[in-house]
Amino acid sequence: MDLEPNKKFVVPIGPQHPALKEPGHFEFAVDGEIVTGATVRLGFVHRGIEKSAESRTYVQNLYLMERVCGICSHVHGTAFTIGVEHLAGVTVPPRANAIRVLVAELERIHSHMLWLGVAAHEGGFDTLFMYSWRDREKVMDILEEISGNRVHYSANVIGGVKFDISEEQRGKILSSLDFLEERTRHYLKVVNEDETFLGRTVGVGIMTREQAESLGAVGPTARASGVERDIRVDAPYAGYEQFPVRMITDTRGDLHARFVVRIEELFEAYRVIREILDHMPEGELTARVPRRIPAGETISRVEAPRGELLYYIKSNGTDMPERVKVRTPSLCNWGSITSVAVGHKLADMPMLLVGIDPCFSCNDRTITIKSAGVDLGWTWEDLRQHGIEAYR
Amino acid sequence: MDTIQELERVETLLKPYAGEMRRGEANRVDVPLEVGQLKAAVKALVDARWGYLGAIAGVDQPAPVEQGGPAANGHTEVIYIFFQGAAAAALRVLVPYEGGSVPTICDLIPSATLYERELIELFGVTVTDTPTTEKLVLPDDWPDGVYPLRKSFTGFDGQQV
Amino acid sequence: MNNISLPPLVALLVFPGGLFLMALGLAYEYIDRKLVARFQNRLGPRWFQPLADLVKLLAKEEIIPDGVHRGLFIILPVIAVAGALTAALYTPLAGFMPAYSFPGDLVVTLYLLSVMTLSMGLAGANTADRFSLIGATRTLTQLFSYEAPFLLALLGPAIAAGSWQISTINLYAENNRWMIFTQPVGFIVAIIGLMGKLELPPFDAPEAETEIVAGALTEYSGRGYALFRLGKDIELVIGLTLVSAFYLGGLANPLEFLLKTLALLLVVAALQSLFARLRIDQTVGLWWRAGAILGLVQLAVIIAGSSWLRPLLFK
What we know:
heterotrimer, B: alpha/beta, two-stranded parallel ribbon, C: mainly alpha, 13 helices, 71% helix
């Protein structure tokens, strides 16, 4: 141990640390419990996706892009397909656009509830963590019901969407939404009223509007600081023109505001989904898209659960893109941690880290009933029962 | 519509610095710039509070071999993308492999540091005066002078990407 | 209260010290974990899980990291468990008379219980790991904050009973109105103090896994970690025994012991799942601003009551 008095005492968080579900490395210089400096090092899961996109066809790339993130796979696919469709000059049928928005909002629900649980866990509030994840299963069930997958729903194809919403599914979604809305109301109450929780969130990690703007924060993190920026409102894409959302902002800019903004966004998501289900446009699901995309370049932006997601796509007239640049929202928000951290207590760091909802890979399992050639012949319900029995 | 007005506003703002501007898309104006004018142009945007920096994208443009140019004569196109609502402005500069550099814009927009580090690492663009040049995404033992997002990089030991 | 006389060796190794206490500790750990899990809508562990954890840990290689004092590193877990086991000898475990008893053993017991926390703090400070060092600082900070209120809370019944001998207080509690009703504030301070002592949520800042991994014990593995965990389980039992003996009308027989301590455990488990973790500064603030003051006020009332009021009322 180095006992030089002038040497900073540095607490490393990551690359492997219980607070981080995905590798990232943070170093916090501390004086006692007070943080005096912070640095970030990323790239532990750098997979070279932008490079490999250049040697794959557009269709292959769609599936590659969905795997950029395990939580918000749909928005990546959407941003990419919107860009490619724009380059190809294809208009997507309105029903496909509506389904894209529907899946995007379901994804937002699942992502925000996941975040709520993780953030509560970082604050040592494991009961909230367990409850919110239990309720999140409802939305995972909906996603599985309509797409067959819990995480990579793969709703998009270039030119439209892959699946339709049947009348029966509509009923299931609506009844699940009622349940979720009631639970969300409860969580909002907990977040707003629990004394110990308020003690950990109110006034912690305050980021003023000016700071948020100069640090380039995006998404709910920025909106909690009063920055009115939401791509769904500013530059509506897919079906958001037809099914507009209300922008949720808060002016306080602390951790508590970030909780409130995200939970309020859940209510907005429930409302939009109901709206879509009630006014689903009729028509085709896909439009024809040529295999070779005309040369050109485009920037497509969508509002991911974590904020603005940007795709820059340059095509060269072949069936493979010349260049794909992905700018994920989490990248923008890292800056807000390193500068806001200074002066806070070490105990607040995990919550601050999670406060921006960094894109942690989803730990969710995907169960393949037919795996490695062995047909278990089990339904999802059987597996679930088996899981409950086996660990009782 | 708002977007059109914003695009016209940014065109007027950048007129003194830019070459020939054109509408790349209905909501995007492409602004070719000399490297020397970049900083002034960004400053004009920041001072006028026009939009925010969305990203800095690099695009590799190797010299076409059939035109007889040696590989070292390639360029990296650096695109600074700004957004204001639905309107986008793409400030584009061409940086040659040899001897080219762009000035940092971190003093104007602090959040640019991550994008600049990415440019340095993945494209080998020299960014002068940028606050940090430490590795951001590549492994610590990544060899110097190998820039993975250049078209000439096709993997190590003949492994295809 | 039943009294059984056992040969000293049996008392130390089998009952009430030693094996019995360890088994009881593991059982209580299981109940605690299961209750918290059920409160959190989880399934929770199976009944032998704490034992399985212990056996597994004991079977594992113990890694002694660089930069530690080897002797201390090895001996500290032993001291912790020894302290907890010794403390048990003075408590009315399972509703029987304490195996050993002398006037003033309450103070000795409390200090023996603190040996455990001290050992953990030292164990953390002994290693060069940053998480351990911060964990150790927090463990000791917390020790200084809950110890005084906890002691004050246990002194209340002692003063009411007019003795500092645990068995006497236990007898007094059996024959008088339950002190949870006569001294409610003391009871609350005692139960929260116990949770602070055991570093249970929401007072688990010293081992907050999302901040400092496992706190002071980050570098421990295998045998050492198993012993610390065992020590904590034992402390849980002793703590519950003390609080229920003092505040819940004494422990006269094994059945009463089981019912009262388990009821208390239910309360502790519920409290664990109700709150978000307190930051260490919030913990300290809570204890010194609320806990200590309340404890002192309670104590003042009791002293006033027993020295002035009682002579006046029962002349």
